[in-house]
Amino acid sequence: MSDLVSEPDHSEWWVSFLKGGVAILPLSIAVLPWGILAGSMAIETGLTPAEGLGMSGIIFAGATQLAVMGMIKAGAGVMSILISAFFIASQHLLYGLTLRERIAPLPLRWRLILGFLLTDELFALIGKHSAAEFNRWYALGVGLFFYIFWLLSTLAGILAATQIENLGSYGLDFSIAATFIVIVVPMIKTFRPLFAC
What we know:
Blueprint (H helix, E strand, L loop, with lengths): L12 H18 L1 H14 L3 H11 L2 H13 L3 H11 L2 H13 L4 H10 L2 H7 L9 H28 L10 H17 L1 H4 L2
């Protein structure tokens, strides 16, 4: 078993937690412009800084958040926003089903925490490991470090939006495609037999 994912000795849980934080660092840096975009869009939409940061803290799904803010700005109804948000974030249901075997044996508090922290990035780093290799502390490190980084990048966007006019015109949305590429390319290499028909 890999030392990154095997269940640690009780005295070494923090090592696995920190390894998770280090593992997510490249994806956290890649998502920085996306978080800045989310923060600036929140201000452009008319949300207060606290509401914008709160939205990032509660929704914690970048594409869903950006779509919701666009719909709020366009004056869409609450039901339209909720239905759209559900469908945009529906891949998380598939991620959850894929990880079920690994997460189900954990206590409820762990399942709730890891379920909330489940993002494309977390799934990319832990989805490839078997149930025997799964390490909850490593997963928590990945998810929590990414969550904190997302909130800080959103806060940076909120602060930048109050200082820089029309921040959205600087091409920050390219980070969405860049992050997707960083996540998908290694997974395609791993799942090569699926495409060898």
